[in-house]
Design a protein that fits this description.
Pfam families: HD, HD_assoc. The chain is an all-alpha fold. It is built from 18 helices and no strands. The longest helix has about 30 residues. The protein is globular, with a radius of gyration of 21 Å.
Length: about 375
C-alpha cells in the first residue's frame, strides 16, 4: 500500500513522448525494465567503482553498486510506504552516465570539455536515457517517466538547469531553480547511494590491502559495530573477513533503521498529503543528526585513507591520462569513432558521449589501438 505522499504511477506526469500504458506493468515498472535492458546498464559491469575492473574479480563495479543501492532503497521504501518500483528504477539508472575509470574519468573528461559545456555524470545519465540509447523507432532514448528522470538528475548547476529548463519548461531541472525538492523516492535513492558506497568501499578497501581493520579503529561508526559483533561472537576475533562482514552488516542495518525512524518522524510532522506537497517541503528523507555526523566522519576517513591512497592516486592519474589522450585522438580523427558519433554536428560533445559510454577495458583497448602508450597491465 502506497502512502499518500508516495509517487503514484497512476498520477505520473508522464513521458515526453506519450505512449499507451502497458497491460501488466505500471509506468515505473516499465521504466525499470527499459533501464535493465539498455546497453548503458550492461556496460556498468565493466566500469570502475574504486578499483579498476582488472584489479580483482570481487571488487564492486558500477553495476554491483547500483544493485546494492536498489536493494537498500527498496527495503527503506517498503517501510515508509514509498513506491519501490520507482526507487528501483532511479537506483539502477543513477550511474548510467558514469565514465570509465570512475571519478578520475569524469574529472578528466570535464577538463577536456571545460570550454564546451563541461561534463558531469548526473547530466550524462539523463542524456543517456533521454537521447543516447537508440532502441525504439518512435523516439531517441528510453522515454522514461518524469519521476524517474527527476530522480536520475541528482545534481545540476544553475547554468545547466537554465539550459535544460529552456528545452523543457517546468521539467526535471525546474527544482534547481525554484528551490523545491525531488520526490521522496528520489531523496531516498540519494541517501541509499551514500549508505551503499560507504559500506562497500570499506569492504573493497580491506580486500585490496589498502585498508586494515586496525586503521578502522579511528572510525567510531565502524568500531561501534565491530565491538558489538565481538562482544556477541568472541570467536570472530581470529576471523578477519567474517568480523568485517558482520560489522558492515550491522552498520548497514542500523543506518537503514535510522533513516526509517528519522524520515518517518519528519513525514509525520510535515504531513504532506500528496507527492507534490512533499516536494514543497524541506528535505524529508534523512539520517538523524548523530548518524549524519558519523557518516560524514566515515566519508572523511575513506577520502584520506583510501581514495587518496598513493596506489589509488597512481591508478587515477594514469586513468586521467588515458581519457585525455582518447579525447584528443578522437577530436583529431573523428572517423575513428562509429558514424553516429563521427557525424554529429557538435564534435566535442560527441567525443565526450563516446568516451563516457566506454567500459574500462574498451577504453584501454582503444587507447592502445590509437597509438597510446599502455598504462595498465589489463
Amino acid at each position: 500500500m502506497l502512502a499518500p505522499y508516495a509517487c503514484d504511477p497512476a498520477r505520473s506526469r508522464g513521458r515526453r513522448v506519450p505512449e499507451p500504458d502497458a497491460p501488466t506493468r505500471s509506468v515505473f515498472q516499465r521504466d525499470r525494465d527499459r533501464i535493465v535492458h539498455s546497453t548503458a546498464f550492461r556496460r556498468l559491469v565493466y566500469k570502475t567503482q574504486v578499483f579498476l575492473n582488472h584489479e580483482g574479480d570481487l571488487f564492486r563495479t558500477r553495476l554491483t553498486h547500483s544493485l546494492e543501492v536498489a536493494q537498500l532503497g527498496r527495503s527503506i521504501a517498503r517501510s515508509l510506504g514509498l513506491n519501490e518500483d520507482l526507487v528501483e528504477a532511479i537506483a539502477l539508472a543513477h550511474d548510467l552516465g558514469h565514465t570509465p575509470f570512475g571519478h578520475a574519468g569524469q574529472d578528466a573528461l570535464h577538463d577536456c570539455m571545460r570550454a564546451h559545456g563541461g561534463f558531469e555524470h548526473n547530466l550524462q545519465s539523463l542524456r543517456v536515457v533521454d537521447q543516447l540509447e537508440l532502441r525504439y523507432p518512435q523516439f531517441d532514448g528510453l522515454n522514461l517517466c518524469f519521476e524517474t528522470r527527476e530522480g536520475i538528475l541528482k545534481h545540476c548547476a544553475r547554468r545547466d538547469a537554465l539550459r535544460l529548463e529552456a528545452l523543457e519548461p517546468g521539467g526535471v531541472a525546474r527544482r534547481f531553480l525554484d528551490g523545491t525538492q525531488p520526490s521522496l523516492e528520489a531523496q531516498l535513492c540519494n541517501l541509499a547511494d551514500e549508505i551503499a558506497y560507504n559500506a562497500h568501499d570499506i569492504d573493497d578497501g580491506v580486500r585490496s590491502g589498502l585498508l586494515t581493520l586496525e586503521q578502522l579503529d579511528e572510525v567510531p561508526l565502524f568500531a561501534r559495530y565491530r565491538d558489538a559483533a565481538l562482544a556477541e561472537h568472541p570467536s570472530l576475533a581470529g576471523q578477519g573477513r567474517r568480523l568485517l562482514f558482520e560489522a558492515i552488516r550491522r552498520m548497514l542495518s542500523d543506518q537503514v533503521y535510522d533513516v526509517i525512524g528519522t524520515t518517518g518522524a519528519a513525514l509525520q510532522a510535515a504531513a504532506p498529503a500528496t507527492a507534490d506537497e512533499a516536494r514543497q517541503a524541506r528535505p524529508l528523507v534523512a539520517f538523524s543528526p548523530a548518524m549524519r555526523a558519523a557518516s560524514t566522519e566515515l566519508k572523511r576517513f575513506l577520502t584520506r585513507a583510501l581514495y587518496r591512497h598513493p596506489q589509488v592516486m597512481d591508478t587515477t592519474d594514469r586513468a586521467r591520462r588515458v581519457v585525455r589522450e582518447l579525447f584528443d585522438a578522437y577530436l583529431a580523427a573523428p572517423q575513428e569513432m562509429p558514424a553516429d558519433f563521427a557525424e554529429a554536428p557538435d564534435r566535442h560533445r560527441a567525443v565526450a558521449d563516446y568516451i563516457a559510454g566506454m567500459t574500462d577495458r574498451f577504453a584501454l583497448r582503444e587507447h592502445t589501438r590509437l597509438g597510446g602508450q599502455p598504462l595498465f597491465n589489463a
